[in-house]
Amino acid sequence: MVVLVLLCSTACTSTPTSAGRTTLGLSAWPGWFPWQVAQEQGLFQRNGIDVELKYFDSYTDSLNALSSGAIDANSQTLNDTLASVSGGAQQTIILVNDNSTGNDQVIARDGISGVADLKGKKVAVEQGTVDHYLLLLALTEAGLSQKDIELVPLATDAAAAAFVAGKVDAVGAFAPFTTTALQRAGSRAIVTSAEFPGAIPDHLVVSRAFAKNRPEAAQALVNTWFDTLEWIKQNNGQAVEIMARRGGVSTSDYRSYDAGTTIFTLRQNIDAFTPGVTPTHLNHQAGQIADFMVSTGLTPNRPSLDGLFDDRFVKAVRR
C-alpha cells in the first residue's frame, strides 16, 4: 500500500484526462524503456490516461510518425527533434528522460585505434539521426569531415549487423545495438557520448497542437513518468526484467547500460528547462546543435527554437 501512495503522489484519477486515446511512441533506447514498465504495471491508468504504447523497430519511423501526426507523442533526442522542426514540424519538448553518457558509440574493427583512423574507411550509421550526429562531432574534433569517410547509410539494427558481418569498418550505434556490434572479434568503441557531455539529451516530445489542446493528457504522461521512476526504484529487479525483455537483451547486459544512460530527476528536469549558458541547459545545447547541423549540412535551415521547450508540465509535478 505504501508503493501505491508513492505512485499516486503526482496525480491519480479514475477517469481519462481527456477524450480519446493517446498514442505514445518509443524505440530501442534504455532511457525510454521505463515507458514499458508504466504500461505493464498499469501506471498510465492510475494517472487517468488511456495510452497506446507503440513500439517502433526503426527509430526513424517513430520520428516520421510524430511529424506526420500518426502518433501524439514520441521518445526522441534533441537533435532529431530539431531536425524535424527544421523540416517544418510543429513540436515541443515537455520532459527530459535522460542524457546519453556513453550508450551512443562509434565502434570500430580491430586495427582502428581512434577516430583519425576512420579516414577512407566504410562507416555505417542511420543517416540524420543521433549517432550520425555523434559521428560528425567526433570527426570534427579529429580534424576530419564526412567527406573523409565512406558513409554507409543503414538503419541502426542493420548497421550493427553489417559491422558484425565484416561489411563495414565501423558503425555508429546506440544501446542495445552496441551489444550486437561488439560481438565482432577485436572490435571496440573509439568514441562515446560520454566524451560530449550534454550533447545527446533524450525527451518526451509532443505536437504543439497536443500540448495546447490536450494539456491534461500531457500532464498525465509527465506524471506517469515520475511515478514509473519511483516504481522502478521500489521494484528494481522486476523492472530490469521488463526493460531487458523489451530491449531483447539479458538482464546483465541491460544493467551494463546503467552508467551510459543518466535518467533525469524532477530537479534535473526543471534545471535543464531553465535558460542558461552551459551544456546542462537545453536552450544552450539546442543552439549549439542547431548551428552544428547547418554547418555540417545535416539541415539547410537553422531550426527555430521558439516554442521548442514547454516546462509547465514538469513544474506542475507535485514534489
Q: How would you sum up this structure, described in words?
A:
- The protein is α/β, with parallel strands linked by helices and 319 residues long.
- The protein contains 15 helices and 11 strands.
- It has 2 domains: 2-100 and 199-315, D-Maltodextrin-Binding Protein, domain 2 (3-Layer(aba) Sandwich); 104-195, 3-Layer(aba) Sandwich (D-Maltodextrin-Binding Protein, domain 2).
- It has a 6-stranded mixed β-sheet with strand order 2-1-3-10-4-11, sandwiched between helices. Strands 7-6-8-5-9 form a 5-stranded mixed β-sheet, sandwiched between helices.
- Helix 6 (130-141) links the parallel strand 6 and strand 7.
- Helix 2 (34-40) packs across helix 11.
- The longest helix is centred in the last third of the chain and has 20 residues, at 215-234.
- This is ABC transporter substrate-binding protein.
CATH class category of the largest domain: Alpha Beta
- How confident is the prediction overall: mean pLDDT? 92
Q: End-to-end span in angstroms?
A: 19 Å
CATH superfamily of the largest domain, called what?
A: Periplasmic binding protein-like II
DSSP strand tally: 11
Q: Please list the strands of the largest sheet in the order they lie side by side.
A: 2-1-3-10-4-11
Judged by helices, strands and strand pairing, the structural class is alpha/beta
Taking Cα atoms only, what radius of gyration do you get, to the nearest Å?
A: 19 Å
- What is the percent of helical residues? 40-55%
Strand content: 15-25%
Order of H and E elements: HEHHEHEHEEEHEHEHEEHHHHEHHH
**Helix run count:** 15
Shape: globular
CATH architecture of the largest domain: 3-Layer(aba) Sandwich
Low-confidence stretches: 1-18
Q: What's the domain count?
A: 2
Subcellular location: Periplasm
Pfam families: NMT1_2
Protein name: ABC transporter substrate-binding protein
Family: Belongs to the bacterial solute-binding protein SsuA/TauA family.
